[in-house]
Amino acid sequence: MKNTGDTIELVLDRTPFYAESGGQIGDHGIITVPGQHPGQPPAAVLHVGDVTNAAGGDLSVHRAEVLQGRVQCGDKVCVCVVWVWVWWERCTYVLGM
């Protein structure tokens, strides 16, 4: 179990996050652990700061900080890639800025 302020690495069964590869940095975003009942605030909120490949590219490892709450192995999660940030980083990468 990890608590607010902890930095963790997560492997999800599937992910929309792009992993660092070929000189391009990994995606950033938010992972939440939903509350137990509809309408409740999330049980945990995490900021994903990097995603890398492991096991020869078969796994994506998400490095995240727990911003609030608690997260533990087996929790179901909701993920959200911060697309504006992704778009800007990819544009500057292409433009060489």
Short account of what is shown:
The protein has 97 residues and is mainly beta. The chain is 13% helix and 41% strand. It has one domain (2-95).
Describe the structure.
It is a single chain. With 97 residues, the protein is mainly beta. It has one domain. Helix content is 13%, strand content 41%. It is built from one helix and six strands, in the order ββββββα. Strands 1, 2, 3, 4, 5 and 6 form a six-stranded antiparallel β-sheet that branches. Strand 4 and strand 5 form a beta hairpin. The chain is globular and about 40 Å long.
Shape label? globular
Largest pleated sheet = 6 strands, antiparallel
Total tally of structural domains: 1
Helix content: 10-25%
Structural class: mainly beta
Quote the average pLDDT: 84
